[in-house]
Each structure stands twice: as C-alpha cells, then as structure tokens.
Amino acid sequence: MKNRFYLFLLCIPILAWSNSLSAQDEPIAFIGATIYPIEQAPIENGVLIVEDNIITAVGDSRTRIPRGAIINDVSGKVILPGLVDTHSHIGGGDGGDRSSAMHPDVRVMDSFNPLSPSIKKALSGGITTANVMPGSGLLMSGQTIYVKLRPASDVQDMLMCTGEQPEICGGLKMANGTNPIGSGNSPGTRAKSAALVRGLFIEAQNYQQKLLAAQEDATKMPARNLSLETLVEVLEGKRTVHHHTHRHDDVLTAIRLADEFSYDMVLQHVSEAYKVADEIAASGYPSSIITLDSFGGKMEAKDFSNKNGAVLEQAGADVGLHTDDYVTDSRLFLRSAALAVREGMSREGALKAVTLANAKMMRVDDRIGSLKKGKDADLIILSGDPFSVYTHVEQTWIEGQKVWDRANPEDKKVATGGYGVFRLNTHAHTHEGGQ
Amino acid sequence: MTTTIRNKSFVVLTCSLLFVLLFGANAWAQNNNTSYVIDAESMHIGTGEILSNGRILVKNGIIEAVGSQSEIEAPNGAIRWGAQVVTPGFIDAHTVVGLAGYLNDPGSDQDQLDRSKAIQPELRALDAYNPEEPLVAHLRNHGVTTIQTGHAPGAIVSGQSLIIKTSAQQAEEALVPESMLTFSLGGVISGAFSKPGTRAKATAMIRQELFKAVDYAKKRADGTLSSTNLGMEALADLLDGRTQALVSVHKAQDILTALRLQKEFGFPMVLDGVAEIYLVLDQVKESGVSVVLHPTMLRATGDAINVSMETAALLAKEGIPFAFQSGYENYVPKTRVVLYEAGVAVNNGLSPRLAVQHLSLYAAQLLGIDQRVGSLEVGKDADLVLFNGDPFEYTTTVEQVMIDGQLMK
Lengths: 435, 409
Prior knowledge:
The structure holds two protein chains of two kinds.
Chain A: H1 2-25, E1 28-35, E2 43-51, E3 54-59, E4 70-73, E5 78-81, E6 83-88, H2 117-124, E7 127-132, E8 140-143, E9 145-148, E10 172-175, H3 190-216, H4 226-235, E11 241-245, H5 248-261, E12 265-269, H6 277-283, E13 287-289, H7 308-315, E14 319-321, H8 333-342, H9 347-353, H10 356-361, E15 379-382, E16 393-398, E17 401-405, H11 409-416
Parallel strand pairs in A: 1-4, 1-5, 6-7, 10-11, 11-12, 12-13, 13-14
Antiparallel strand pairs in A: 1-2, 2-3, 5-15, 7-9, 8-10, 15-16, 16-17
Chain B: H1 2-33, E1 36-44, E2 50-59, E3 62-68, E4 79-88, E5 90-95, H2 134-141, E6 144-150, E7 157-165, E8 181-184, H3 199-222, H4 230-239, E9 245-249, H5 252-265, E10 269-273, H6 281-287, E11 290-293, H7 311-318, E12 322-324, H8 338-347, H9 352-359, H10 361-367, E13 384-387, E14 398-403, E15 406-407
Parallel strand pairs in B: 1-4, 5-6, 8-9, 9-10, 10-11, 11-12
Antiparallel strand pairs in B: 1-2, 2-3, 4-13, 6-7, 7-8, 13-14, 14-15
Helix pairs in contact in B: 3-4, 3-5, 8-9, 9-10
C-alpha cells in the first residue's frame, strides 16, 4: 500500500514534465491568410498547420485543425515560404587571399560570424536560408555555406546540408571576368584565368584516379590535399559550383568549362543573360540573378538589364534571384523580385525565384522552398501583396519557431535601421577588386 | 545674257534657301508650338493638391491651363495623352551624373572628385558636365526632369554644382550654371588626401580659408583687389549669399560642426546626407536650414552606420524642409533614382502625397527654381511624368516624361 502511494507520488513530477513537453509539442494553426504554397496555386483564407518543426498541412479553410492547436489568426495577411537567397555575404565572412588565384580548400565557414547583426537584418527581409559566399576577387575563393538563419552561436548549428549528400553543406565559389584579374598571383587575362582553372581541375582528376586506385590497395592512398579533395567533390557532382559571371562571353566560358568537367553549376549574376538566353537555357545550368537600380558601375556590367528575369523565363531557363548583400540589401529582397515583375517576369516565376528555384539550385528543396506537407516550417507573414511597396514582413519563422517579429521594437529597428542597430560593420571587406 | 542667267540662278538659289529656312524653322517651331492635352485619373499638382480626372493644357512648352476635365476644353489640333497618374517632373537635389558616368572608368568618365587638393571651390561642374552620359537619360526615363549635379562629397570643398534639366543638350542650358558649393565634413572626406587627416584639421583648414575669403570679399567690395583668385571668388560669392554651401555630413557631431561653421561665417547652407539628423533635430530646426536627405536605401556603413529608412517621414513630421537625392555611388548601382528612394521612404512611413511634394515643389523651392518648375501650375514649364499606376508601387512603369512640353520617351 505504501509502495503504491510512493509510486503515485513519483508520477506527479513525471506528469508535470510531460505536460510541459506537450505545451511545446502543441500544433500551430495559421488561419485566415492568403497562402502562396509555390508548388500549387495561391489559397485564399487558407490554413497552414505546423507540428514540431514541420508543416503537416496546407489547404483551404476546410482543412482540419488538430485539437489543442494554438491558433494564429493572420486574417488579411499573406503567408510565403521563408525566402531563400542564393548569393549573400552576410555574417562578415571572408575567403581566399591574394597568395594564390585559387583556394578551393578555404571555407567561409571558418570566418562566418553567427552573431553578426546582418543575419537578423536578413530575417527582417524574410530570408530564412542563404548561400553565404566568399567574394569574387579570385578564380576560386572558397567553399560556401548553406545556412538557416536561426539564432545560434555556432555556425555548425545553422548548416543546411544537401539531401543526397549529408556531408555537403555548401558549394564552391568561382568567378571569371574582371574581378579575378589583377597583378601578382592573379591571372592577367581572361584566357589565363580559364587555363588556370582547367589545369587545377585536371590535377583533381588525377587525384581522383589515385583515390579510386587506393580503394583496391590501401598503401596507394595519396596524402590528403584539401584543395583537390574539394574539387573531387565537384567532379563527382556532389558539390555545386556557384559561378560569378557578367559579360555574355564570360558566361559562355563558364558553361564551356562546366561542360568539359561535367560539374554541377549555378551561374551567378549573369548581367548580360538576355544576350545569350537561348544558350543558357540549352545548357541546362540555372541562373541566379540580381535586379539593380541602374546599369553600369563597371565595364562588364554596363549592359546589365533588369529584364534578365523575364527573358530567361521566356527562354525556358531556370532562374532565381539573389541580393548579393550588401550590393543590394537583404531587407529589400521582395522589392528585387517586384522589379523583375515590372520588367516582364511572371508573378509566379518571380515568387518561385525567391523560394523554390533557389532551394533547388542549392539542392535543399527536399526540405525548404515551398509550403508543403513534410517540409520544414520556414515561413513569413506579410502585411499584404508580396510585390507591393506598402507591404511589410511582419513575422519570420524557422522550423516552427518565430525568429523575428516586427511587433517587437528591437526587431523592428533592424528592419528600418537606426542608432546602434548595426554596431559591427556588416559588410564583407575582402571583395578584392569588387563584387 | 550670262548675267541674266547668273542672276536667275542666284534668285533661285536664294529662294530655295529661304524656302528651306522658313520651312525648317517652321518645322522646328512646330515641335515647340505643339499643343498637348494631358488627362489623368489622379493628377498630383505638387502642392499637395491631387485632382481627380485632371487635365493640363500645354502650349509652347508652358502649362497653359490646369483643372478638371469637365471645366477645361481640349483645343482642336492638340495631341492628347492620358495616364492613370500624372505628377510634376521630379527633381534630384544632389547627384553626380554627367560628371560621373556609367563605365566607372577613372580615365574617362569619373570627373566628380579631383584628388590634388582638399579645398577647390573654383572647380565648376559647368566645365565638366556631359549631357550625353547614359546615366542622365536613365534618370530622365524614371521621371527625373531637373537635377542639381556636379562634384561629389569626399573633399572639404570638391567644387561647384549646376542645376540643369535632364533634356539639356549642352551645359550652357543650365537653369543655374553655378549653383551650390559641395562641402564635406567628417569621415566622408576620402582617404585620398593626406591633409586633412582628422576632423579637427579639416575644420581648421576651412575656417582659415573662409577667413581669407572674408578679406577677399571686403577688398572686392571696396574695389581694392590686386588680382582675381578663382577659389576666393567662389567663397566670396558664398559669403555674400549669392550661392549656398551644400554640406555633406552624417554623424551628429559633424552636423553640429557644420551648423557651428555656418553660424560663425553667416553663409547660406543646406545640409546634405545627415544620417544621424534624428539625434540633433532641435538644433537643425532652430538653424532653419533645409536638408537634402540621404538616399533612403543608403548602406549602413562608415559614418552612415546609424542610418534609418524612417528619417524622411520623421523630417516631414517635424516640418524640416527636405528634398531627395540620388547622391554618389562608387560602384553598383552607379546611380540611384529618387523615384525609387522616395518609394522606400513611403514604405517607411512617408505618405505618397508628401513624397511627391518632396520630389517636386519642395525640392524646387530648396534649389530656388520654383518660379519655373516643381508644380503643375499655370505659367510654369511643362515638366511632368505619366504613370500607369501608383508612382511608388514597385511594379508601376513610367510611361512618358515631358520636359518643356516635349515628349522624352
């Protein structure tokens, strides 16, 4: 009798603990908003259910809401997937230095600052995942990181790794055109740039052969070489090349090299895309583009056009948008997409260009990029139409947690700027000759 | 016999010439003589008034009538244009386009800052302005009809500006060929100069120069000048109030330094940039100076690290006169566009109605050109913009721009 009583007493703390557990496990239901799932047509007065960190339902007002769910009435608002930025320099990281033209061994991860205010700045613009890259001043400036912009003190807690290759959590930044050209260890010409890159990829192919041979005979294992290991990942199609390129002929050179070594590539910037849109479409490589308030700023971008999004879309090429923060500000990412729409891109295409298209380019679309059952609960609440100047991002959620809220004055200050908001200088400094 | 033939040829030749001249002149005059009727569902006058179903009559490049479509009759032969929204042509109160170009090539199209000396008031934008610069057309295509353009921030005094329409084909057509003197204080002064190396040094240098100019101005007034010094002439004109200083500063302490200088020497001054103005509102209000506010999308870096997108709305609320600018960009984008900067200000609390006013009449008043431009009022130049929707909506297009009664697109 006494034993059963003590057993009963023991249950009380256990019950209390499990009760607190279920408080966290309660589903969240977002109701009343216009939902843009991206993979299906917009849903007026929709319902979106989040359980733990996953979306468990997206549908119209008849969607079943689980018992005990916390109801977030967002009537009159708009829900989008958390935005994905395929080209950003937030976090104050750097990459390779002037000691060589190519640094595939260098990792932006080893210089990224998770506490940088620029990360919260990106959240205020609705961005939940970014491809954070080193600069473009080198032929190969280093390994990029795909990061969820969740609050964290260790970058490794932010990494988004690709579905098929869980050990690969970023790409390789490459560049051609004028930025990598210079004196000293930099190539002096475009032809030299291409020759250096091809030479190193051939070295990597040789290394790859040695690694294969070592599978038969362990004594044949070559010494570890960080640079060549990374390029072998690229050659094996595991790690994507993100290739900064502007002028139409430089774009075709980037395609030529990718074809020669059969690697996976995203063309980045592609300022003159409209001049070679058919070739880009035929190549199968996706483009990540930017919209700007004017052309020029450097020779190879003098013919830049905001019509690139529309032209690439019409040519049947895959296209996404990026901020290249700080070249354009993360807080103005939706504005970038609206400018593409103004110049002729479809609304659907532009919405996809800041979400799913980018997730696909980063090979993380199994988890993010659209509002769909089973995907991460990364979403943003907008006050109105995504492409209106009057719209504000009101809330940003990552994996079922609200990570930014405009109603919070400290958070709102990041959206507008002001005294002491950006204590650190938020810009990457080693853009060696330009972005 | 030959004389008669020669005379005949002469007569024929002269008549042909006269014929061509008259017809040619008539054809040119026709362009300027063309009458337009411009209708808009929503017509921003520039004063704050917005007419529904408004109508403007344009003749000889001038606004002849403004009112509602029901009260103004469209004259026969006038060319008719309609748009959802019409506004006055926009005014960019401080840019560098025309001296700075889109190629960003220091050898050929970057004339906005000479690095040989930190104080050069004698440099005239008039002597460097390139009306054919593609960035000028870029601004024009986005509804900017008048610009104050010239030397960039980055030196204590980098030079002079000029005020010109974006349709001008020569610098000589400037509305004001020698407008404001561009000053900078604080970290905005570029590292190009070994002297000044600090804020205190810069202020000491300009005070010394202004004292020299006081002397010069006195001798000039007395007629006792022994020789002309161009730099001194420009500063003496400033001290005499014939021109204004456009002082680029961002940090609060530098704004106060500018006000202190202005108080000491009494010259007319307009503050430029002023990212941290929200910290010194009372002092700025008390001084009565106007402001050419930094672009709303200015990057939060260097002296402007504390910049806020809400400052335009704040200045409007506090009654501090201001205009918009595209400013100076050293990389990408090579120029900003005041229509876009005002748009993001609207996203951050400024009403669209006020935004149009600060892009037009308030800017014209700040630049002293409101007799001719800045609002859709009878007698003013026919400078206006036609939109296919709300001017500030990201997806709206500028359909047509008119300057002096001529269509630009």
